[in-house]
Write a structure and sequence with these properties.
Length: about 700
């Protein structure tokens, strides 16, 4: 049956009354103690000893056929009588090894000297020894398979290619009908990403399986023991005798072995899939040490038993592959990091002012879209937003940022592949996915780098309906495995392509860099502003408020400096003291305001006559000074005369003509501000005495 549906994944609808029952059944399934089934598969036998290998505690009910000793007899036998002292010594040595997974041994036991594969391991306070018959003939080609694979893995260019080769190699080695890689997503849903299958065998490639197909405690078992072998899925389990340990009455934990009996629910599941034999090996992901994928082998219709040697070779092939996969993934990741690094360096090389997000995104946004395979980017800093590409509108962005920043654990990165299923649903706009990374700048008002992805409509082929069915077992509800593995299609909407870990890391790096850049630029700008304000304040403190020329305080300082440098370098310098004639009459006739205006006009006139290097200041009232740098006594007298003339020729609106009297004094060796000003003042006084509107020089 092929069915088209256009709803989101993971939203399965049950009648209301079913929901509670389903939840109960799901939790029952998730807690089924699969590691202590009290039974093994019939492909081998088991003996449990005490920790010192001095006493037999439990045996599997089929031990008689394997070793030719009746079970009752075996339970009363000494370990030496059962396994022989040589094998016991080798087992002890193996268990003393520090390796987490004990190695395997081979031995010949029983009346018929049956060749056996021996798997010893510790289980709590006990030692368990699992025994499996070995095939009569040798398997010399296994080593050459491993050697060839060691060379092959290095040739793969991408993780996908390596997995393709792995499934081919393993199907070739084992003769299974189908070998596939079953990859877990973040919610533990599985999808088949690589597959090798025999002719006429149905494909599972691209199929999805719901997380409940492999419950949490089963996944946890793969963390302890990466291999799970089920040679005959339909075979009846062989119980342990007695059921529990006779000393402490606890069940035997078979997690680390290969013979652990199959849960009836799993047997049913495999039967529904038409799987007669199964072998799975875990592939753990990089540094997260998380179960990332399973290599899964199936024989259909009839059981396909592997020899222990071939089975262990499959495990070894996977174990050789995993580090190489990590290497290839790291290589892809480091290529992305390298590109981001280049982008970061370019940011720093720029001399622009990188405070305005708009400017930053305008310059670099396109490149980021490309690097992160994003459709839109927004950089939000304070009240500003820089945007590029397909992003929600500005109010929505603000709302998103407010939500992101208000989370109790904020500011930390946040991402979603389906915004519609998050609290940001109301504002997602054209985007389906978001990767939001905070810029560690200002905790009171966090800034964010937001990368958006559009919807990527995907057609998922589910291996059967993703829902589980509930079955009644006695008075309890349990999850029954799905009966149909026929293909069922579902259109997955509102999702974007997943944000990879490497992309998330690279975005965090970029955000950190942006933060450092913006913060340093802000400090730089603040310093510049502070400098500007200080300068303005300083100027204000030095200027005369009415006329805008230097005030007396400043002009005295200037004069002091000029005298000092004239003395040191033997330069010329002169002082002109200029007093308006009969200014009292101006005030009296026209009022103080008109008087003020006349003083401003006077300053404007004087300024047009002076050089850059001259300093004009107000000495007080209607008295002004000009510090004429690099000017001799003669030059100063000429300048004074020009100024006098210019003023006398000017018209001061309602006041009419105004004249000035100017005293001139040139700087002499040993002069101070006081002595120089005094001489200029005397000269000015003399000019007044001589009838005003004149220049008098003391030199
Ligand atoms: N409007 C105005 N008048 C000022 C200011 N500062 C000083 N004065 C006036 O300038 C006048 C100076 O008068 P006096 O010192 O008697 O001298 P004068 O009238 O200019 O006469 P001589 O200097 O002898 O030619 C005073 O009436 C002051 O009030 C000012 O900032 N604005």
């Amino acid at each position: 049956m092929t069915n088209e549906a256009s709803k989101s994944v993971n939203r399965h609808h049950y009648p209301d009354s079913h929901e509670a029952e389903l939840a109960e059944a799901q939790s029952a399934c998730a807690t089924e103690p699969v590691h202590i089934p009290g039974a093994i598969q019939p492909s081998g036998g088991l003996i449990s000893f005490d920790a010192d290998l001095t006493m037999v505690r439990q045996v599997s009910a089929n031990l008689g056929t394997l070793l030719g000793i009746p079970v009752e007899h075996a339970l009363r036998s000494s370990p030496v009588a059962l396994l022989g002292s040589d094998l016991l010594k080798r087992i002890t040595r193996e268990l003393d090894e520090r390796s987490k997974v004990p190695g395997t041994l081979t031995a010949c036991l029983g009346a018929e000297a049956q060749g056996l594969h021996v798997t010893p391991y510790r289980s709590g306070t006990r030692v368990v020894v699992e025994l499996e018959p070995l095939p009569a003939e040798d398997e010399p080609r296994l080593l050459s398979v491993l050697n060839r694979w060691l060379a092959t893995v290095r040739e793969a260019a991408t993780p996908d290619q390596l997995l393709e080769w792995l499934v081919e190699e393993i199907r070739d080695l084992t003769g299974f009908d189908r070998v596939l890689i079953y990859r877990f997503d973040e919610r533990w849903n599985g999808s088949v990403t690589a597959e090798s299958r025999g002719e006429g065998i149905g494909s599972f490639l691209g199929h999805h399986f719901p997380a409940s197909d492999i419950p949490p405690q089963v996944r946890a078992l793969y963390d302890r023991n990466c291999l799970r072998s089920i040679p005959d899925a339909a075979a009846a389990a062989v119980p342990l005798v007695p059921d529990n340990d006779p000393v402490d009455a606890t069940p035997l934990d078979l997690s680390l072995g290969v013979l652990r009996a199959v849960s009836p629910i799993h047997q049913e599941y495999l039967a529904n899939m038409d799987v007669a034999s199964a072998l799975s090996v875990a592939l753990h992901d990089e540094d997260e040490e998380r179960l990332g994928a399973l290599l899964s082998c199936h024989a259909l219709a009839t059981p396909h038993r592997l020899s222990p040697g071939v089975r262990d070779t499959v495990r070894a092939l996977v174990q050789i592959t995993v580090p190489q996969l990590r290497l290839l993934r790291t290589r892809t990741e480091s290529q992305l990091m390298q590109k981001v690094q280049v982008s970061r360096e370019l940011l720093h090389q720029s001399h622009e002012r990188w405070i305005d997000p708009d400017l930053i995104v305008a310059q670099r946004g396109e490149e980021w879209l490309d690097l992160f395979a994003a459709d839109g980017v927004a950089l939000v800093h304070r009240a500003h937003q820089g945007i590029r590409g397909s992003v929600p509108d500005k109010p929505s962005l603000n709302a998103m940022v407010a939500w992101l920043s208000a989370r109790p654990q904020a500011p930390v990165a946040w991402y979603s592949h389906c915004l519609k299923e998050t609290p940001l649903a109301a504002w997602h706009g054209p985007s389906s996915g978001l990767l939001a990374v905070p810029l560690p700048i200002d905790t009171a008002q966090p800034s964010w780098l937001l990368l958006f992805r559009d919807e990527e409509i995907e057609t998922r082929r589910w291996a059967g309906l993703p829902e589980k069915y509930i079955a009644s077992r006695g008075e309890y509800s349990v999850l029954a495995p799905r009966r149909s593995f026929a293909e069922w299609q579902e259109k997955v909407r509102d999702h974007c392509r997943v944000w990879r870990r490497s992309e998330r890391r690279a975005a965090s790096d970029l955000a950190e860099n942006l933060a450092a850049l913006i913060a340093s630029q802000e400090i730089h700008l603040l310093n510049a502003r502070l400098h500007e304000v200080n300068e303005r304040l300083e100027r204000l403190a030095s200027l005369d408020s009415l006329t805008g020329v230097w005030n007396r305080y400043h002009i005295e300082q200037t004069l002091e400096k000029e005298i000092a440098s004239a003395t040191r370098y033997g330069r010329d310098c002169a002082l002109l003291l200029l007093d308006v004639d009969h200014f009292k009459a101006v005030n009296d006739d026209h009022g103080h305001e008109i008087g003020d205006k006349a003083l401003m006009t006077l300053v404007a006139r004087l300024n047009t006559m002076l050089r850059e290097a001259d300093h004009l200041g107000r000495w007080g009232g209607e008295e002004f000074v000009v510090v004429a740098t690099g000017t001799t006594a003669r030059g100063a007298q000429d300048l004074a005369e020009r100024l006098r003339q210019r003023v006398a020729e000017s018209h001061f609106e309602e006041v009419g003509p105004i004249t000035v009297s100017i005293g001139v004094a040139a700087c002499r060796p040993g002069d101070t501000v006081k002595t120089l000003v005094k001489r200029a003042d005397q000269a000015m006084y003399r000019a007044k005495q001589l009838g005003r509107n004149g220049v008098y020089s003391v030199d």
